[in-house]
Design goal:
Uridine Diphospho-n-acetylenolpyruvylglucosamine Reductase, domain 1, 3 domains, 6-stranded antiparallel beta sheet, 3-stranded parallel beta sheet, 9 helices, about 25% helix, about 25% strand, globular
Length: about 350
Amino acid sequence: MTELSKYTSFRVGGPAGKFIEVATDSEIVSAIESAGSGPLLIMGAGTNILVSDAGFEGTVIRISNNDLEAEIDACSGATLKIGAGENWDNFVAMTISRGFAGLETLSGIPGTVGAAPIQNIGAYGHEASEFITRVRTYDRKEKKLKTFTNQECSFSYRSSRFKSERDRFVILDVSFQLRIGEETTPIIYAELAGALGIKVGEKASVVKTRKATLELRAKKGMLLDPADRDSWSAGSFFTNPIIDEKIANQLPPEAPRWPQPDGRVKTSAAWLMENAGVHKGDSIQGARISSKHVLALTNAGNATASDITALAREAQRKVAEVFGITLEPEVNLIGLNLQ
């Protein structure tokens, strides 16, 4: 049996009942249909999942299609359709090398292109949904191909209809609309602006912005490095909470606050953890909070999925006790829960 620990960035996870690798639309659809109504897990790079030590008893399908189609117009920019199995950062690097702008602040995010719309990945003031035009899927319920426009994807902070209906739609490819240009739009994230040596609201070179983004992620342990166990994680384990204004007003004045269009307030999961007594380097058995960033839970030394889950529960408990806020995992838990 195939051990899923070989295919996840945490390097943990038990065996799959059945494991299939597919690289074309026909292979993907055939594998899905062969699985029938039994448990099914779709995998890409395995960088945003934590799989139980008991494994997954159903069928695991690992998608690796990476075909690219491009339509380029000097005025309207570039429309790129890319297979769901392509490595996300390789795709970002390719867009920049070909003179396209837009995805530079999303450099270094681990995972595949197909995962981008599911999580609506984002960093440094931008989200994938700003650039996605269409998502082509296989609808397991209706047993047919279905394409969604951007509006039909129901994008929100770290979510989409593909996340809320995860067992229904399997993403085959994603289309992006990008500008042609050497400069970014105004940099709106203070940390990135500082790294670039500019003021918030100023523009920068796309190439330099990618470089600065990768350097910032590396300092936080958010770039996967096979030689560095401090990076054996799934990136940020928790999402930044979006809370009612009344709850936000009860936080200390120095707590980060980002007002949302619906009147609620986003705050920082990392700040909550650090101010609730969660520290870099805290550990339970082989699981450890990264020494670089408190949001990264790592497999620091032959950790099990149970070790990592226990560490996450402890962080969750401390934040709830101090601030009355329950942190929600950004990582997809397979056969596990934090309750």
